[in-house]
Amino acid sequence: MTLHTLLKPMQVSVDTAPSLMGDTAGFVSHYGNIALEKAVFFVPKILIALIILWIGLWIAKRVYNGLQKRFAANPRVDTMIGNLASKTVKFGIIAATLLTAIAVVGVDVAKVFVILSAATLAIGLALQGSMANVAAGLMLVIFRPYKLGDYVEVAGEEGVVDDLNMFTTTLITLDNIKVIIANSEVRGNTIKNFSTLGIRRVDVDFGIDYDDDMDKAIKIIKTTADKDTRVLSEPEGPWAKVAMLNDSSVDIQMRVWCKVDDYWDVRFDLIKNVKEAFDKGGISIPYPHCVEIEKK
Fold first, then answer.
1. Are 206 and 277 in contact (CB under 8 A)?
2. For the domain 24-124, what is the CATH code?
3. In this predicted structure, what is the pLDDT of residue 165?
């Protein structure tokens, strides 16, 4: 007997079924016996199905956690690929457990597949945008333009990659804001990865007065940068040259190389240190002046 048989409308002969109007007690007794027979037949199967579900979910959780630990301990396995593989195995075990439980109850699994296929097609047509995100997520996992922990700019947003799943990419900005971006938006825009090469160049412009000695200012900038132990000598040591002649200042651009993790500290510290060195060396930084004109 299957669940399909159970759910079929009960057809009882008029001659054998007690009349509801004529014999209420007999009617209740008759259909009570039928319900009891069905319960005796199906309750053990339902209990077994629930036990199978509990065991399957427990196994899925243990396998997922075990794979996560093994992938994390293996430096040759990319973190994003490890997460995706772990989740795929987990959901595969859960799906197999559900189908097994359904089969134990007595439902035809082949019919379930037919229903799921039709539902999947309908959902896919209704959620074409989500399917585009899934396709983009697969492309991001395969080509790996960034990995977890990289500092990137995607779809106009900058931050550290915190998560990548089949639908979205999650960034954590420098001011600790979580930004969630659809994968289709990521794939459709320029991706800048500031971490993948290991080093970055810090570019800072300093404006000095036209009456100041440009060569002296350049020497001060280079000397100040050389004193910072975080500044690298390769691929090039501290560099400074006149970059622009503005209306009220001569702009000197400084370029130094540093490790990715030191970028912001090096940038901010050098701005402060160069300003202090300019003050000691007699180099002035021009700023706007307001002149009040009084008409008589």
1. no
2. 1.10.287.1260
3. 81
